[in-house]
Design a protein that fits this description.
Number of strands: 41
Radius of gyration: 28 Å
Largest sheet: 7 strands, mixed
Strand order of the largest sheet: 25-26-27-36-37-35-34
Low-confidence stretches: 1-54, 201-210, 500-520, 857-863
Shape: globular
Strand content: 25-35%
């Protein structure tokens, strides 16, 4: 999807030496923030039905120095923080390694101007005070015990910790993950957490080895006036200094950062890891956010920063599924954010810092059938920004006793009954959203439909409950007859006019006659037939569109092109006035021209085309979009394509509804994770011709990667010999479903249309004509492309600008010469942060140079 907006990640990071990372002193985690066991575990704050898979566990060595610091809030509350360094914090160790504070000072003093800066002096003073007042773990609490988070503290021996806080031991961690979480149990009322990076080879079970910069913590959460230390490293391990490492705070009004610090250990500096200290200014209104940008010559990382101070309470119950509760606790981050469970499993965290992505962890023990204690652990992540939160539960809620009922009569999928019930749910959801915000509205809706709100309104008839399949922004409504409908709260359709200023004005280009030149080199696709599919074109028509501008060029050069481009009002008509017995708009769609509608059947025939271009919304189904990491995508992740909005005016059986009925048994939901399709409602906003945008909800058919797996597996429908460019959000992660294609191209993240549309246009232009006459920025007139924020080209071209490029070379030129891949823009608004660094990647047959085909058969005679 284009918009202005964890299962377990498998870290692709290998470190040649041991280094230790601390957990942010505001509870921030590294690249893995969920700790599983054999019991249900989920990051979704409202789902009890989607257990997180247990990873493969191995032991790896780790070492470091543990110390505890204390922070005092404005209200006088104490916040304990556990930190871990790979050198002592304040004293020289027995090996002669200088302490962290001394090495920071030495680095700062290398540049007198930096050292004498008032901001750096303030940073160093705060860091010095924090570490001076810290205590090694055994001195802070002699009863404290250290464990890996995968250890059972009731049934295993703690990791030994020396008097100076040092430890050196084997720790239990995920195979394929170079870091592991540690927990320190001080007493029943206090448990602290930290993170360490281990050494040892990453397991072969982890296949994701995408190069990239990494940080720990992956997100910084800090109180005003505090200092937090951040570690930067990369996969593959590289000399960061030689790679031109730069670190920049993007909003200097919130504080300052130190220069990069390379620590000396064992007599030499380690340039594979860099530390940076961030000091948040005092007296800031919170929560407030910014980012830290980390760059090398070819890599970039954005680290979210959130400054927190205000707090509220979270309460709920840990359910044991009927087993006997022995003990347990719930923990988050804040002044009073640790609580023992009472005998009924109830808890109240009195003061938890308000912030985005707050982690709340429950750990409890029950008695098993053999009489032994069984440990359970569950972690959830929530945007906690408003008032006190109640009913935030863990475990498996008791199943209400049901009374026998008549088996519901199956209804047609397009029965008006479903839209009426969904409309009632959406009406209540919208009311809660107005009162408490989106996150709590989702929670309340889920709890309401599952019968967990004692004061909730009556549940609509025939709704059996609600679940999440892993994306916390989606609500899956379950009906007693087996039907399920998804409500997507974070993926709106925004109908808007083209911005006259973006993209930039097009250069006048004369007709070019050398299209056929491309056939003389290497190889090409199966034929010169082209198909373009753009089911969401009606949302934002614009310039530099493949399905409009490249289409015109191809037709003028005698190509056979089939283009299915859905436009409004020619092909579909929207009615905003449908109120199904409630106050929410359910926008109905009437299909007027079936020739311009993309259906599931369309994809059964696209494999016969040599060039396939798709512009259809994409996105993850069972993992969260907000914190999506394209380098750590679980193998079990499911992705979707928005096929088309559904005709809901006459509730008749059109070709799409008939296909859905034929494949009803392949409907995707939490009970059928291999399903091909699902029915969902999305928000829709019309900003055209109205002073106040019209808003409502519209039904849509979504296809999953499993449907394309099916087509890909059949000789008659696969994509053998084709080039596929799917230029939309998250489409790179569908590549395995198209691996029979000769070339597959997709985007790694959520993509901005103003970048992705002209980028795809330029890619095909380069393949067809070369780069010489491609549309340029006529305002700056510096040779840069007509793509927003496009920089000046890098140096002199090493390629012939008059000759068409093969697919790999075209993408390479866009990436390394024109520097528009990844997206060169930096997005700072919260709804667009996850669009930063969206990158186009290519999958192709090894060793082949694949050129654009010509629309005629060319016979080459060899002498």
């Amino acid at each position: 999807m284009f918009r202005t907006t964890k299962l377990y990640p498998c870290m692709a990071v290998v470190l040649a030496v041991i280094c230790v990372i601390f957990l942010s002193n505001c509870g921030g985690g590294g690249n893995s923030s969920v700790v599983p066991n054999t019991n249900p575990t989920t990051e979704n704050p409202v789902s009890y039905t989607n257990p997180t898979p247990t990873p493969i566990l191995v032991t790896k060595p780790a070492e470091g120095y543990l110390l505890v610091t204390n922070s005092i809030t404005d209200e006088g509350d104490n916040v304990e923080n556990l930190k871990v360094f790979d050198v002592p914090a304040f004293k020289v160790d027995t090996s002669g390694n200088q302490p962290f504070i001394q090495q920071v000072a030495d680095t700062l003093k290398e540049d007198p101007q930096t050292w004498n800066s008032p901001q750096i002096q303030e940073l160093y003073s705060a860091l010095n005070a924090s570490l001076f007042n810290s205590r090694p773990l055994p001195l802070y609490a002699s009863s404290a015990n250290l464990y890996s988070s995968y250890q059972d503290s009731e049934n295993s021996e703690p990791i030994p910790v020396n008097a100076d806080g040092s430890f050196n031991s084997q720790v239990l961690t995920e195979a394929g993950n170079s870091s592991t979480e540690l927990e320190v149990v001080i007493n029943e009322d206090t448990c602290l957490e930290a993170e360490t990076v281990t050494s040892g080879d990453i397991s072969s079970s982890c296949n994701d080895t995408t190069p990239g910069l990494k940080s720990s913590p992956s997100k910084i959460m800090v109180m005003p006036g505090e200092v937090v230390e951040v570690l930067i490293y990369s996969y593959p391990t590289t000399n960061l200094k030689n790679a031109g490492l730069t670190i920049t705070l993007n909003d200097t009004s919130l504080g300052c950062i130190s220069p990069q610090i390379f620590l000396c250990k064992g007599g030499k500096k380690d340039y594979t890891k860099a530390w940076v200290c961030f000091h948040a200014k005092k007296s800031l209104s919170t929560p407030i956010s910014t980012t830290i940008t980390v760059k090398t010559s070819d890599l970039q990382l954005e680290i979210p920063v959130e400054i927190v101070k205000a707090a509220a309470s979270i309460s709920g119950t840990v359910y044991t599924g009927g087993a006997t509760l022995v003990k347990g606790f719930v923990k988050s981050f804040g002044p009073k954010s640790h609580c023992k469970l009472d005998e009924n499993g109830n808890y109240t965290l009195q003061k938890v810092f308000k912030a985005h992505n707050v982690k709340v962890r429950a750990t409890w023990w029950t008695i098993g059938e053999d009489g032994k204690k069984i440990r359970h652990r569950e972690v959830r992540v929530i945007d906690f920004l408003n008032a006190d939160l109640t009913g935030f539960n863990f475990g498996v809620p008791p199943t209400p006793t049901s009374t026998p009922s008549v088996t519901p009569t199956p209804r047609p999928l397009n029965d008006e009954f479903y839209s009426e019930k969904v409309g009632a749910v959406l009406s209540q959801y919208e009311q809660w959203k107005t009162e408490a915000g989106v996150i709590q509205a989702i929670q309340h809706t889920m709890q309401w439909l599952n019968g967990e709100l004692l004061d909730g309104p009556p549940i609509p008839d025939e709704i059996s409950g609600a679940v999440s399949v892993g994306n916390p922004d989606d609500i899956w409504i379950m009906f007693r007859d087996g039907m399920s409908i998804c409500i997507s709260t974070s993926d709106p359709i925004i109908i808007e006019e083209e911005n006259a200023e973006e993209p930039l004005p097009r250069e006048e280009v004369k007709p070019i006659t050398h299209l056929t030149a491309a056939s003389s080199n290497n190889t090409t696709v199966k034929n010169a037939d082209v198909i373009m599919l753009s089911p969401s074109y009606w949302e934002q028509p614009g310039t530099y569109r493949v399905e409009k501008d490249i289409l015109e060029d191809l037709k003028n050069n005698d190509y056979k092109v089939k283009c299915i481009t859905t436009e409004k009002p020619e092909d579909i008509s929207l009615n905003w006035g449908f109120f199904p017995a409630n106050l929410v708009h359910l926008v109905t769609c009437k299909i007027l021209n079936w020739d311009n509608i993309v259906t599931p059947m369309t994809f059964e025939t696209i494999g016969k085309y040599g060039i396939i271009y798709i512009n259809a919304h994409g996105g993850p189904v069972n993992i969260a979009e907000k914190d999506f990491d394209p380098t750590n995508v679980p193998k079990t992740a499911v992705f979707r394509m928005s096929c088309t909005v559904l005709d809901s005016t006459l509730f008749h059986m059109d070709p799409i509804w008939m296909w859905m009925e034929r494949n009803k048994g392949r409907m995707y939901d939490y009970t059928n994770e291999g399903g091909w399709w699902f029915y969902r409602y999305r928000e829709i906003k019309d900003t055209i011709l109205t002073s106040t945008p019209r808003e409502g909800w519209i039904g849509e058919l979504a296809l999953t990667n499993h449907y394309f797996d099916y087509l890909n597996s059949k000789t008659e429908t696969n994509f053998d010999g084709s080039l596929i460019y799917w230029g939309d959000c998250y489409t790179w992660h569908m590549r395995d479903s198209f691996n029979t294609a000769k070339v597959y191209i997709g985007n790694t993240k959520s993509a901005k249309a103003k970048w992705a549309y002209p980028f795809a246009y330029d890619f095909f232009w380069f393949m067809m004509y070369g780069t010489k006459d491609c549309p340029k920025d006529l305002i700056n007139n510096d040779g840069s492309l007509a793509i927003p924020n496009s920089p000046k080209p890098a140096g002199t071209p090493t390629f012939d600008e008059d000759k068409p490029l093969d697919a790999r070379h075209a993408l390479h030129v866009l990436t390394t010469y024109y520097n528009v891949n990844p997206d060169p823009a930096t997005y700072t608004d919260e709804e667009s942060l996850h669009c930063n660094d969206c990158t186009v990647l290519i999958q192709y047959d090894s060793g082949e140079h694949i050129y654009f085909p010509v629309p005629v058969t060319v016979t080459v005679h060899k002498k």
